[in-house]
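Hi all, posting the design record for the shared folder.

TITLE: backbone redesign
STEP: 1 of 1
STRUCTURE INPUT:
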């Protein structure tokens, strides 16, 4: 049974070496919803995710899980609630797909609970959900980038946490598998109430799948809310430096970003040469 958890950052500052990446940030993730974080490269999206998962220590402020500072919690207790798929995970040499996905079950092991049929079922369900069951005996090093990415997602699913953080999980996936993965995450959210947080680069997919969207720039949150409430041409230009039109997605009705390149004009402002040629 999935439980809703209160995960938030309060006055959070995170960074590497002498550089602050996220500064004095406050955010509360809506429990039981899908949140998508968007922003330009190096704006702090991945850093924030690492901080929320307690993989990166706060320089100041805190990350709170159900009212407790995660820095004072045991790693295994955090891992039972929060699962993280990082941007560039590394697999041990020679490990097979089944063994790697099985590592997602480690937080559920202990002195008095060893591997069980429940763990077998969780691993098999994760393999089947990600379309990787036929790869179970293959070594990770033998797989394509897209196959490997789906296996990492399977490991995160096998961990079976109430909160799932995914950093650019659609990397290396073709458009078909991107949509399949986001549909799968939506199914987990809708059927099990899991809180899911995803970093995505594709704004249109972000708007389609997010209940809540967070737009970041230079380590700060520019705006947050439902896609329809926060994504417009002004926000996209501010966050990404992209001139665009934002129109309703013909499939979902959510905002759809239509970039304007230097060699194109807005559909809202017809090209006079095209008008002359077709009139």
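Okay, here is what came back for every position:
SEQUENCE:
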């Amino acid at each position: 049974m999935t439980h809703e958890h209160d995960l938030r950052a309060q006055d959070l500052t995170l960074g590497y070496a002498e550089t602050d990446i996220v500064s004095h940030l406050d955010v509360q993730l809506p429990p039981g919803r899908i949140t998508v974080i968007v922003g330009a490269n190096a704006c702090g999206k991945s850093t924030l995710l690492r901080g929320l998962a307690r993989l990166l220590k706060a320089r100041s402020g805190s990350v709170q899980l159900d009212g407790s500072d995660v820095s004072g919690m045991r790693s295994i207790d955090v891992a039972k609630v929060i699962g993280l798929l990082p941007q560039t995970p590394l697999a041990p040499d020679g490990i097979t797909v089944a063994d790697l996905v099985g590592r997602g079950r480690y937080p559920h092991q202990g002195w008095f609970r060893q591997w069980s049929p429940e763990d077998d079922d969780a691993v098999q369900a994760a393999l089947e959900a990600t379309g990787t069951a036929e790869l179970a005996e293959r070594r990770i090093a033998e797989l394509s980038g897209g196959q490997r990415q789906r296996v990492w997602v399977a490991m995160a699913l096998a961990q079976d946490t109430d909160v799932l953080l995914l950093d650019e999980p659609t990397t290396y996936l073709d458009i078909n598998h991107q949509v399949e993965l986001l549909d799968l995450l939506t199914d987990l959210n809708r059927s099990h109430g899991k809180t899911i947080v995803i970093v995505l680069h594709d704004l249109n997919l972000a708007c389609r799948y997010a209940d809540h969207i967070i737009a970041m720039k230079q380590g700060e949150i520019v705006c947050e809310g439902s896609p329809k409430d926060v994504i417009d041409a002004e926000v996209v230009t501010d966050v990404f430096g992209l001139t665009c039109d934002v129109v309703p997605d013909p499939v979902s009705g959510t905002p759809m970003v239509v970039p304007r390149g230097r060699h194109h004009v807005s559909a809202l402002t017809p090209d006079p040469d095209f008008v002359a040629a077709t009139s």
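COMMENT: Residues 175-192 form the longest helix (18 residues).
Let me know if anyone wants the other runs.
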